[in-house]
Amino acid sequence: MKRIWCRIFGGVLVSIAVFLISCGGMKAAYNKDAAIPVLQKDVLAKLTGRVEISQSLIILERSTPENREASRTYLVEVFNKMGLEGRRHTYRENGENVYCLLSATEPSNEYIILGAHFDSVRDCPGANDNATGVAVVLGAAQTLKQLPKRSKNIYFVLFDEEERGMQGSRSFAQKMVDDKINVVSVHTIDQMGWDNDGDRAIELEVPYEEAFKLYTKAVQNAGFSITIHQTRETGSDHSSFRRLNFKAVGLTEEYRNGDTTPYIHKNTDGYDTVNFEYMLMATKIVIEAMKLLIQ
After folding, report:
1. CATH number attached to the domain at 62-294
2. What's the whole-number mean pLDDT along residues 64-88?
3. Is a pLDDT exceeding 80 seen at residue 39?
4. Is-above-0.85 flag for pTM?
5. pLDDT > 80? residue 11
6. How far is CA 284 from CA 33, 139, 289, in A?
7. Region of residue 166 (left: phi > 0; alpha: psi -120 to 50; beta: else)
8. DSSP for the chain, written as a single string
9. How big is the chain by its Cα radius of gyration, in Å?
10. Please, which contacts does 181-185 make with residues 24 or more away whose CB atoms are closer than 8 Å?
11. Widest distance between CA atoms in the chain
């Protein structure tokens, strides 16, 4: 595994500064939590090898056991810094999900799962697939933790080994069954950083019955006017939960409608290809959807 032992941080800091300045021209909805884009750029930079993920360590992909372990350690730390207890769900040797629980502010036996896979294929930085999904989940966690009232519990889960037959999400879904957790709905994010035609459309993959209505309202509450497509795409983590009869939906860019990253599973799926404005919009929509479910 290639490791690069030095990298200039200045470019990243400048990029963050430029991004924050540019946010002034966005819709007001983007400015409600200025910390989200900072967090998301940091997550993308560290997971894709743009900067060190830990002292003197840069990972250029997230497929090997060593690099996935470095990713897990970092992601647990991110949760902990938010004031959420980062946990590990070990389901086999070298197979381990990262998750945390945001408890309801009132007694509740209802749970929502919001997740994304953190691994990549071999020799691929995995920026869009799926560091963007990870960044959406973490951005949502950061905001939802601050709500004064939450009627349901939320699991934020970062799945291992989606690229190997969705093993991480399958195992976490089975854990929910085994632990007799009352999961009312599951929402997974996979590839949310490409919008070449600028229409900002999103797709809901095999949405459960109420999901389209939920996300339509969430888009409105976030202050956007975009198209929401519904597709029959089953090739991501939402399928792991549906097979066990959970209500689940996947969220993505226009994967089935012809506006998705051309760099998927290539060594060119890097940090610089991500549309951060589009990803931030999607994060705001997910946050509004979660609010509708828990407030």
Report:
1. 3.40.630.10
2. 98
3. yes
4. yes
5. no
6. 10, 9, 9
7. left
8. --------SHHHHHHHHHHHHHGGGS-GGGGG-THHHHHHHHHHHHHTTSS-SBTTB--S-S-SHHHHHHHHHHHHHHHHHTTS--EEEEEETTEEEEEEEE--SS----EEEEEEE----TT---IIIIIHHHHHHHHHHHHHTT-S--SSEEEEEEES-GGGTSHHHHHHHHHHHHTT--EEEEEEE------TTS---EEEES--TTHHHHHHHHHHHHT----EEEE----STHHHHHTTT--EEEEESBTTTTBS-TTTTSTT--GGG--HHHHHHHHHHHHHHHHHHH-
9. 18
10. 181/111, 182/109, 182/110, 182/111, 183/111, 183/112, 183/113, 183/241, 183/246, 184/110, 184/111, 184/112, 184/152, 184/247, 184/293, 185/112, 185/113, 185/211, 185/246, 185/247, 185/248, 185/249, 185/293
11. 50
C-alpha 287/C-alpha 279 separation (Å) is 12
Does the structure show a pLDDT above 50 at 9? no
